[in-house]
Design a protein that fits this description.
The chain is mostly beta strands. The protein has one domain: Sandwich (Immunoglobulin-like), CATH 2.60.40. It is 3% helix and 46% strand. β9 and β10 form a beta hairpin. The longest helix has 4 residues. The radius of gyration is 18 Å and the shape is globular. The N and C termini lie close together (10 Å).
Amino acid sequence: MRFAKLTILGAIGALVLGTAAQAHMPYLLPTLFDVGKGGDHVTVTSSFGEDAFVPEIGMKDAPFHFIRPDGTRGEVGAPTYLRDLTIFEADLKAEGTYRLTTGQRLGRMGKMYAVGGKWIIAGEDGAPPAGAREVAVQSTTLAEAYVTRGAASAGALNPIGTALEVQPLTHPSEIASGSDAKFRLLFDGKPLAGTEVTLLRAAGNYDGKKVAATVTSDVQGNFTLRPEDAGLYLMLVRHRTEAPAGSATPYRSYTYTLAFDAA
């Protein structure tokens, strides 16, 4: 069995406006990534934190669910909401690979401005330059992980086709330390080129080497990561763009994370 090293390090504080708040990222972490043939469920924790898998603010309003091996949607058990993290169980009734997800979650609203073609959230990098045009923006987050019971399958790996997401081209159960793992970055089902992807190490919370790699998606949205050490990792992607018609704000700031372990 492939285990997630779940260590509850405690809360650091409440979410505040300003630079620190912009660093918060969502995560979803199962206690096991491979439950074996006999496993029939998995326990999952979810939170927001400034560091990978360090819970600070429990996720209280996300539409948690999972995608079954056949591609259909399944509902998780009733979540338990704590101040620092949220806990729920997912039943794995059939063999195969499941996609556990927070679902798209709309978050707080704020302001951002463009500098050199790059969107910056107000408060992230000091005061806006003189004459900068600020626009209203709302955060949108999605955190995911894949869990396998018995033989691995690919049905749950297919893209949903909305907002920001990552499609694994290397099956998550086959990711190994020292080997390349391939992925495709998508936005509304189409390849998203030229976007930075950061790979964070859970072990980095102890040895100070938190960032394992930073890569950029190519014209097909493809990118490759190589986890050098065995252990738990969190992939992080951010993308800021116009919001869908009828949204509460004209722009959205999308954040996506994928938790996985490298054998």
